[in-house]
Amino acid sequence: MIAFCSLFAGVFGALTGLGGGMIIVPILVLYFGIDVHHAAGAALIAVIAASCAASIEFLKGPYTNIRIGVLLEVATTLGAIFGAHLASILNQSLIAVLFGIALIYASHTNLDAKTDNRKASSQPDYPFQERLAQNLKLAGNYLDQGKSVSYSPNHLFGGFSLMALAGTASGLLGIGSGAFKVFALDRVMNLPFKVSTTTSNFMIGVTAAAGSATYFSKGYIEPTLALPVLLGVTCGGYIGARLLARMKVKALRVLFTVGVFVTGIQMLMKGFAGAQ
Amino acid sequence: MNTNSISNPISNGRQTEILLAKVLLFGLKISLFIVTVGGFLFLKQHGAEEPPAYAMLIGQINPIKISTILDGLRQGDGIAFIELGLFLLVATPVMRVGASIYAFAIRKDATYALIASTVLVILIAGLFSTPR
Question: Is pLDDT above 90 for B120?
């Protein structure tokens, strides 16, 4: 049963671009009555698998920027460990409330994402950060339809701090927080969109590993729960990626975004109900 | 759109990406295989019983110890296989970080070898930061 729902979560996660964790945690919590800690632990495990699987494909392409990824992983892993420790201190209701907020935020940005075709705004960068980016050789380029596209990240410090926050959210809530990472790479650091999504995915596996290691050592990974979630999300992600290539998903996306929003409200209510 | 990736001029480090992809694929395959084996063993051993009451997990913690996993493996316990597989899955991105240290090091990129090493240290610290 849980495997089936995870399959569903994996398919929709891939179709909508939300990570599986964002979907599977509320399902586990709201419909199976599983406590938030174990749900987040199981979801983190599934997130690792999903990210690794996607990275294998992305790394063969020209977009993933390993240097940017590795550099920002310093921030995301620290954040994830902090978030995972925070999760074990905070009570479940508060985490449920935070999760609700994250879902509502995600449903909002998810609708935005498609309408976004803007050219990367070239705001002036601070000279020091620009020099740092040069010294760290973070610039990259790739060929897009025969044309060479060059890019260099702006606002390193801003991106770095946001990544620490994204890592914290990942460790705390058991999600990949890919939307948040893409936001930092794309909007703040002004990287091309494809570089942002693939590099974000590259980092998610390591971020989730940092978080789940803490869940492991705290005993929040239940093998009999993690297994069906893991297999379900992995198979689902695979099917979803295949479907994505030949499906018009716009209507589905809108419908699903509404679903995510409603789930966010439900998580909020659960959190507040538990707090009393 | 990946067709031109090989002729990408900047990516003299293409081999790095391929290496990392291989490490990830390797780890993913092994861990998913072991987890699946464990799942079948578990169903064989416990499939006839009532499904576990997950709601009862609240507040219950189950720290996984390497010694118990090894004991379980020797006895062919399904749970132990699942735990081993999960552990290897978590280790996969860690191995990927290790591989990137190696890749930066052989290209004499000291800065990034150092940065990647920092990530590795953070990951290992996270694993052993057992509370209480």
Answer: yes
